[in-house]
């Protein structure tokens, strides 16, 4: 199973390097800018670790980067085939500017985007692929509605492949 499949779109986002658990991000089209304190890791029972909002976020606010190793889709698919259940599912496939990519966040990195759990029906975040000034595609999670402090941040992994759903029935909800 892969974490997510998303069709990206171009938007202009500039970001400075993360400082501790906060990072500066600007989304010119929405006028949102500021230091965004990254959310917090919590345990969510059968889901394992997840990410909670440490403050309220308005709809459209950038939340987290889904950070990992950027590869081609082809390489991502090769890795998926080579992986076993012990590797978890941290491959995020996406498209940007007519090209297809994969971010492999399998390695424990301390970055929080890779720990965001799935919800199809109650998603409050949405992934978006963006091209930063360095021309490297990146993935960010944005608030899809207003998010209250303490809420778990979840997004729809978008993996509806029958074999994946059969193996991971929680993908249905
Ligand atoms: C990208 S990881 C998310 C972080 C993970 N919970 C952890 O502790 O490392 C994806 C994995 O989280 C679990 N997961 C995510 N969303 C879930 C859900 N709605 N219900 C049950 N398990 C979920 C599954 O084990 C899935 O393979």
Describe the structure.
The protein has 173 residues and is mostly beta strands. 9% of the residues lie in helices and 38% in strands. The chain contains 2 helices and 14 strands; from the N terminus they run E-E-E-E-E-E-E-E-H-E-E-E-E-E-E-H. The protein has a 4-stranded mixed beta sheet with strand order 1-9-10-8, with helices on one face. A 4-stranded mixed beta sheet has the order 5-6-14-11, with no helix packed on it. A hairpin with a 4-residue loop joins strand 3 and strand 4. The site of S-adenosylmethionine has 15 residues, from strand 6 and strand 11. This is SET domain-containing protein.
Instruction: Give the overall average pLDDT.
Output: 81
Q: How much of the sequence is in beta strands?
A: 35-45%
List cofactors, ions and other ligands: S-adenosylmethionine
Spatial strand order of the main sheet = 1-9-10-8
Helix count from the secondary structure assignment: 2
Task: Characterize the main sheet.
Answer: 4 strands, mixed
Number of strands: 14
C-alpha termini separation = 16 Å
**Overall spatial form:** globular
- The secondary structure category is mainly beta
Tell me the series of helices and strands, N- to C-terminal: EEEEEEEEHEEEEEEH
Helix coverage percent of residues?
under 10%
Q: Unreliable stretches, pLDDT < 50, 5 or more residues?
A: 4-21
C-alpha Rg, in Å? Answer: 15 Å
């Amino acid at each position: 199973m892969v974490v997510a499949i998303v069709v990206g779109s171009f938007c202009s986002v500039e970001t400075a390097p993360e400082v501790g658990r906060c990072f500066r991000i600007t989304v010119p089209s929405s006028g949102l800018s500021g230091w965004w304190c990254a959310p917090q890791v919590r345990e969510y029972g059968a889901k394992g670790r997840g990410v909670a909002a440490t403050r309220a976020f308005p709809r459209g606010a950038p939340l987290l980067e889904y950070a990992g190793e950027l590869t081609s889709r082809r390489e991502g698919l090769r890795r998926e085939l080579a992986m076993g259940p012990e590797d978890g599912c941290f491959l995020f496939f996406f498209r940007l500017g007519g090209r297809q990519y994969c971010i492999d966040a399998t390695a424990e990195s301390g970055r929080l985007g890779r720990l965001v759990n799935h919800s199809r029906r109650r998603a409050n975040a949405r992934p978006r692929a963006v091209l930063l000034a360095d021309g490297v595609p990146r993935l960010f999670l944005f608030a899809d509605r207003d998010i209250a402090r303490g809420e778990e941040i979840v997004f729809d992994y978008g993996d509806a492949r029958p074999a994946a759903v059969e193996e991971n029935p929680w993908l249905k909800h």
